[in-house]
Specification:
This protein has 399 residues and is of the alpha+beta class. The protein contains 17 helices and 12 strands.
């Protein structure tokens, strides 16, 4: 049977457990044409890791080609607010613009900066878990997993706790991220456009406030940078909020579920929490696919992939590849020391917030184990329907 036939990202069964299909793809070859999305699927760790670093690929192509030159259609003008927001963000920039903005923003994510945040992160995690414990349980997704990283990023950006829009940060992010799924629906696109407009309007108003009332926050710092346009500031803030909490939210709830369903909750200790976090990031990858445009002809495993193509780097498959992780690739091992997972990407687009994500995850798992040692499922969790961004919508637990 054709290995690609098992790859069905619109099937709830596949989304629930894509890993057997990944195994078929890896066994079937190194590059597979997938006609339903017009992409080349790349399932092996060695290839995914190499292509993430390969400058013959890019998140965009418009720094080198027009849409016509690249053989692609221009984006639908109805979705212009989303594309304007997305195209000026760090994730989708290439070349000199990417280098310039990443250099500026990276100052907010130095090891020293992240370490200064540690007491705040641990205090927030302890407080949220304490509330869950005081209630005797509840939906861990809504009460712990979602509030923690949103609060941390909002504080870094300087979003006041008193602003009514603060409650919209997570819904706005979810709506915008819906456009990163494969073949998004018209309804998804309209929701992303609305969220892009509302989020941008709020940030422009907040930037205006910070110009007259600066604070000790990232937005205030960015205002003083002459090299940044206001649109780049807005897009950068949205990206930091979206990328800065989506993975952490999904690994918190998904990681707890992974530990509980593998009877591994008691195996999580302060001594192994660091390696455990990386193993949870590897074992059930929160971002299953990362797409790149082919800017110059490449070859993968003897298969030529011409300029103008799009490759789908299957991070979730790469992280379960026995060729890199050995015969225990499909086994959860909280003590795994050799763990070069690609969850945070690689190369020039390596996730700036990786140290912060690890800090948040380590803090929240340690607090959950300390305050809720007998944590258990109260009911089956529910999963988000999307394939690329892998997460839960609810995780009911009891103590």
């Amino acid at each position: 049977m054709d290995a690609v036939a098992a790859f069905d990202p619109w099937s709830p069964e596949f989304v629930a457990d894509p890993y057997p299909a990944y195994a078929e793809l890896r066994e079937g070859g190194r590059a597979h044409w997938y006609g339903r999305t017009g992409q080349w699927l790349i399932p092996h760790h060695e290839d995914v890791s190499a292509l993430l670093r390969d400058r013959r690929l890019g998140r965009t192509y418009t720094h080198r080609f027009t849409h016509e030159e690249f053989g692609r259609e221009a984006p639908d003008p109805r979705y212009e607010p989303f594309h304007t927001l997305n195209d000026h963000g760090l994730l989708d920039l290439e070349g000199a613009d990417h280098t310039r903005i990443r250099r500026l923003v990276s100052k907010a994510f130095t090891p020293r900066t992240v370490e200064r945040l540690a007491p705040t992160v641990r205090e927030l995690a302890a407080g949220l878990v304490a509330e869950l414990v005081a209630a005797g349980g509840g939906d861990l997704q809504a009460t712990v997993a979602e509030p923690l990283p949103v609060a941390v990023i909002a504080a870094m950006l300087g979003v006041p706790e008193t602003d009514e829009e603060r409650a919209m940060l997570r819904p706005w992010s979810a709506a915008i991220c819906g456009m990163f799924e494969l073949n998004p629906t018209e309804e998804t696109a309209r929701a992303a456009v609305r969220a892009s407009i509302e989020f941008s309007d709020y940030l422009r108003e907040l930037i205006a406030r910070r110009r007259t009332e600066p604070g000790d926050d990232l937005i205030s710092a960015l205002i003083g940078v002459e090299e940044l346009t206001e649109q780049e500031m807005v897009s950068t803030c949205v990206l930091l909020l979206n990328a800065g909490h989506e993975a952490t939210v999904n690994v918190t709830a998904g990681g707890v579920w992974t530990l509980l369903r593998h009877d591994a909750w008691a195996s999580l200790t302060p001594g192994n929490s660091s390696t455990a976090v990386d193993e949870l990031l590897r074992y059930d990858t929160p971002l299953q696919m990362f797409e790149r445009w082919v800017l110059d002809d490449i070859e993968v495993g003897g298969t030529p992939i011409p300029r103008g193509s799009e490759v789908a780097l299957l991070l979730g498959s790469a992280n379960r590849d026995p060729a890199r992780f050995g015969p225990t690739a499909d086994t959860l091992d909280l003590t795994r020391a050799d763990n070069p997972h690609v969850t945070f990407g690689a190369g020039v687009h390596y996730c700036l917030g990786a140290p912060l994500a690890r800090l948040e995850l380590t803090a929240v798992f340690e607090e959950l184990r300390r305050q809720a040692p007998a944590l258990r499922l109260a009911a089956p969790p529910t999963r988000t329907p999307g394939y690329i961004i892998r997460g839960l919508t609810t995780l009911p637990v009891e103590l």
